User: Fold this.
Amino acid sequence: MDILKSSRLDSLRYDIRGPVYEKSLQLQREGYKITSLNIGNPAAFGFETPDEIIHDIIMNIRNAQGYADSRGLFSARKAVMQYYQSQGVKNIEIDDVFIGNGVSELIALVMTALLNPNDEILIPSPDYPLWTTSVSLAGGTPVHYVCDEESDWNPDLKDIESKITNKTRGIVLINPNNPTGAVYEKEIVEGIVRLAEKHKLIVFADEIYDKILYDGAIHHSTAGMSEDTLIITMGGMSKNYRAAGFRGGWMILTGAKHKAKSYIEGLSFMASMRLCSNVITQYGIQTALGGYQSINDLIISSGRLYKQMELSHQKLVDIPGITCVRPKGAMYLFPKIDLKRFNFKNDGDFVLSLLEDQRILVVGGKGFNYMEPDHFRIVFLPHLEQLGIAMDKIGLHFENNRKKL
Assistant:
């Protein structure tokens, strides 16, 4: 008798490490060199964690041998609390902060602690797919709202409200957005918070890229935006501090905590079940938030990240039949393919053929729960020279597959 996987997994996908990724591993085993533009892993492209963070972690390794409080080290939680206080957030205490093994773990934690069967969570489309998957695994139903490409990928507030039902429990924001690179306008963020107030919903804000901003874009955090609804704001060390492998994330609860005592008990219970998050990494959080913000050197016009964003975006929009909203934040591009002009059936067909023909790995838009089959995501983390070569190969692949008119 075959041992079958859980039926809960049948309809779930995580294409960032999905079938095309497995195909890339097979090609690598066969000796082919693959350019991986599929995952936002800064260390793989020479973006290193700042030395002072590494130093503090090393100096405290002996102190990290035992379990910590399930919510996190006092010093780490206080650093997170004080960081948000410095941003003008009021009425927050140490116990409003939870430390997790990256934001990924916290996403699963907040959904598992909240959802009953058939409860609905509103999630942007396109999204970071872990949100959709975590809602489904927790027994809930993900409902995707429209982010409008014609409006720089800002969420459509009317579409969000039209999808709120008596089963809806919360609204997810991913800002800056993965995969589009959008940074939401202040009135959009405030509008979503007002909708949550009106319909008595929780706001879940994934702000892991909040310091990676281009061309003067301003990030508007949800933390502290309302006293009438519960807001859970998430951040971490993976991107801003190039420490993805350390798995250091946090979330802070603001707003109507007095209405959520039972839910907060559930969050504490879920945090206790995993005993504690990575203690070693927590010793770097205070240094990260309080020290010199080296990410600023990378996002200015002369910085490495900015130059890579600009190069890759320009090379894409120079390809006839390809359009791409210029990102205002994060480390991704989400271009659109005019399928009428190319011999690709859909985004999946394009992604697989690009891997097989050019040895470049990207992710199709369907992997981010985008409804139309004509987008893909590129990570622009490689050094300029390597990135330029990869973008030229992508351009060549489109030319090789252009329809003859």
Summary: The chain has two domains: 7-48+297-400, 51-290. Residues 62 and 377 are 41 Å apart (CA to CA).
